[in-house]
Each structure stands twice: as C-alpha cells, then as structure tokens.
Write a structure and sequence with these properties.
17 helices; 3 domains; single chain; 9 strands
C-alpha cells in the first residue's frame, strides 16, 4: 500500500462523516494525521521539479517583475482598470452630466452610530443615529483614486501562506489588513489554497464593483441627457470593453482547466508541510523566514476553527495523483531521481540535473562533451575510468581526452566538477560518485525511454557484459590501432 492510499484511509477513519462545528473535530488526531501521514508524502514530493513548478506557480508567474505571459495579463488588467476609471472621471467632469447624476442620486439617510443589547432572547437596538450621506461624491472620489492607481501592485507574493498584503498604496507600504482579506470574513478565501491568486481576485473584484456602480450611474445620466452626449459616452464603453476582455483573458488562461486543480492541490499540501512538519525545508519557496513562521502559526490556528480545512487537504491528496498522469511513463521515476539530489542524465532531449537543479546548458551543441559526461556517469556504476578510446576509436592527439575534459568542466557546477578525478591509468578520468546517486535515462531502439540506475535489472546485465567484454574490447581496439 502506497503512502497516498494510507493517508486517504486514515482520514476516512478519522472523519467518516462531515462535521458541522469545530468542537466535533478530533483536533489532536487530525494534527497527528497531518504530521505523520501527510507531511512525509509532501516531503518526498517537494524535491521533485514537477511538484515545485505547480506549488510555486503564483510566485513564479504572477509576482511583480516576472517575465511571463500570466504577469502580462495582470498588468493588462491593472492598466485596463485605470483607463476605465479615467474615462468615467472625464465623462463625469462635464457639468451637465454631473448635475444629472446628482439629481438622480441625492444624499441618502445612513446609519452612523448604533448601540445594541444582546441577551438570551436575541439582539435589541438601544440607540441609533442617522445622518444624510452623499454616496455619489464618495463614489466619485473612489473613481479618482483608481484613476491615479493608488495601489502599489495587485499581486503580493507575501500572500502565499496567509493573506497579509492587503491594500498597499504607493505612499503607504504598511501591512494593515483590511477586512476583505480576512479568511474568516471572506467566503471567497478558503482556509487553505492559492492565496496569491485569491487575494488578487479580491482586489480586482473590489475595483470592478466600484467601476461598475459608477459606470451604471454615468450611463443612466447619459440616457436622460439625450443623444448629444452619446458620442461622449463612447470612450467609457470602449474602456469597459477593454477591461472585460482583459478579465476574460486572465480567467481563461489562469483560472480554468485541469492544471488549476493540480496547482491548487500542490499549494495546499505545501502549506500543510510548512505548518505541520517538525523541520520543514522551505528554502525552495524563496520566501523570508518570518513570513513562513507567521503563515505556519496562522494555518495551525485555523485548523482548530475551520471545519472545511481537513476536507480540502484530503481532496488535495487525491488530486496529487494527477501530477504525472499526462506525462511520459517514466516521468515519475525521473522526478524521483532529480529529487534525490544525485546526477541525472536524460538522453532525449539532453538534460543534466545535479543536486536537484538543472544544469542550464544546451547540450545538443556539445557532442564530445556530452559523450564524455555520459561515459563518466556510465563507468562510475562500477568505479571504472574513461579513456580516450571510449570517446573516439581514432583519437586526434594524445591530449584529446584532457582537452575534452578541460572544455566539459567549464560547463559543470563546482561541486560536480570536483568529483571528476584522474584515473589510475595515464590519460584517464573517473567520476568519484556513489552508484546509487547516478541515474541515466536513455532511449532504446523502440523509441522508449529506459531508466538505468544502480538497482535496475537492466543495469545488472549491462554490468555483467561490461565486466567480461570491456577488457577484451579495449585490447582489440589498441592492437588494431597499432597496425
């Protein structure tokens, strides 16, 4: 039984039926389930590039400065909101228009102070004060603020574990949190999940609501004034259409499709890992330590109050199975190999990973260097060295292998380069790396990718044949070269 299945079974035993209040939840058992069953799964997956790509999607794709298409959609929405506000402001500046809007929206009675008494029989109003309030002028000021782009940005990476970005203006960078970003008060913010995108949508919806309300008032005023102002209202309509188009594009690209569910699952499980693992390694998130600690405290506290949180975590575990569903059959093995931190070589397309990171080199351009690196890894399975005849049956010079290694080592990280040492024979090199830390993915004659590692069956036969064939093959090559 795999860990995922075990974790799902344990959850079904803990909560066989839905709970409707916090006192019904077995908090201590749930914490043990998260720590002992869920966190080990996330710890295993968190080193895999596919999982990290999904879990860090909002940080990589939406954050300020990201050179991505998704970030361009954010900036297009930002600009569209500003341009729409400017068009509304310009239209409302006209004296005839404003007078018509005032006549349609006079000041209204508003509650400004209230005192109540709460007892066993309910809530009783003791005192209430009302005054006349000019809502239209307030809305006009809001439109003017939007036209000036009062916010520093609509996306904040700090929201990843817990909403804390709020409305940060260009002049005031304080972290005061408005009520609409409180998870307990806003039903659109779930107890766990993609808070970066969620908080962006909260900001956008508020801007959209203000713009739509004032747009409606301007439209009604334009209709009452007459056809002579219809042409003046056209810029407002164009700005509205541009905003709606940008919003639709963002929703299609970033908030729909099967990838959204998988992304949400990886983010949820990462948040669980941060909050409930005894020694979580979260450096790959790229977030400051204080933010991680703050988010972990908030998430642990929410578990004791929000009955929806365990269900969302259990759902994320089920969705995690889709991580490798659409990829090549050996993708999971490749991800596991990369997560192990060893040396991973993929033949088609040529890729090299070391210590969990990809070595960003266009290996297709370096045939001899790639062949040397592959031979070093292949021979390291049995502690053997690589000679010049392993690269070329007819070496061009005595320094052929040394020159090839001198060029290869400039492409390798220092920690990997130091593991290549001179062999026992002259003009040979060997990779001083344990066999279990080497993984080779190559394509066979049928076009299928195969995985060669220290413990693979294929490796056993490969070693067996090399053990006997290699000395005789080298002897034959060298004798042929003499004559």
């Amino acid at each position: 039984m795999d860990r995922l299945t075990l974790a799902e079974r344990r959850f079904a035993q803990l909560l066989p039926k839905p709970v409707h209040s916090a006192p019904e939840m077995p908090i201590e058992k749930l914490i043990a389930w998260l720590s002992d069953d869920v966190c080990p799964i996330v710890e295993e997956y968190s080193g895999r590039p596919a999982f990290r790509d999904q879990a860090t999607w909002p940080l990589r794709m939406l954050s300020p400065g990201a050179a991505t298409g998704e970030r361009q959609l954010i900036e297009a929405l930002d600009e569209a909101a500003v341009q729409r506000a400017k068009a509304l402001r310009e239209f409302a500046k006209k004296k005839v228009v404003w007078n018509e809007m005032v006549s349609q929206n006079p000041p209204r009675r508003a509650l400004v102070h209230e005192e109540v008494k709460i007892d066993a029989e309910g809530i009783h109003r003791l005192k209430a004060e009302f005054c006349s309030h000019d809502y239209l002028s307030m809305e006009r000021e809001q439109i003017d603020l939007i036209a000036q782009r009062f916010w520093a940005d609509l996306v904040y990476p700090e929201d990843y574990l817990e909403p804390c970005g709020g409305w940060r203006s260009k002049t005031d960078m304080s972290r005061a949190l408005a009520g609409e970003f409180a998870v307990a008060l806003n039903p659109r913010l779930h107890p766990v999940g993609d808070f970066v995108t969620g908080c962006f949508m909260v900001r956008l919806r508020i801007l959209q609501k203000v713009l739509h309300k004032f747009d409606t008032r301007c439209l009604l005023a334009a209709r009452n004034i007459g056809s002579r102002y219809a042409s003046l209202f056209r810029p407002v309509e164009q700005a509205r259409e541009a905003f709606d188009l940008s919003l639709r594009s963002f929703n299609v690209e970033c908030r729909t499709g099967p990838s959204v569910k998988l992304r949400e699952a990886c983010i949820v499980l990462t948040q669980v890992y941060v909050a409930f693992h005894p020694a979580a390694d979260c450096r790959w998130l790229g977030l400051p330590n204080w933010l991680i600690q703050y988010g972990a405290v908030c998430l642990r506290d929410r578990l004791t109050r929000d009955v929806a949180m365990p269900d969302r975590i259990a759902s994320a575990l089920g969705d995690l199975r889709q991580l490798y569903m659409d990829g090549p059959p050996d993708l999971s093995a490749k991800e596991e190999a990369i997560a192990s931190g060893g040396l991973v070589l993929v033949a088609d397309p040529r890729e090299v990973y070391w210590e969990g990171k990809k070595i960003d080199v266009q290996w297709a351009r370096y045939q001899t260097r790639w062949q040397l690196l592959w031979s070093l890894a292949q021979r390291a399975f049995r502690g053997a060295a690589v000679g010049d005849l392993d690269l070329d049956d007819h070496p061009k010079s005595a320094s052929f292998l040394g020159t090839s290694w001198g060029r290869l080592k400039t492409l390798l990280p220092t920690s990997l380069r130091k593991l290549v040492l001179p062999g026992t024979s002259k003009q040979t090199y060997r990779l001083h790396l344990e066999a279990h830390r080497i993984h080779l993915f190559e394509t066979n004659a049928a076009g299928q990718r195969t995985h060669r590692s220290r413990f693979g069956v294929r490796v056993f036969f490969d070693h067996f044949s090399l053990l006997f064939a290699h000395p005789w093959r080298d002897l034959w090559r060298r004798s042929r070269q003499r004559f």
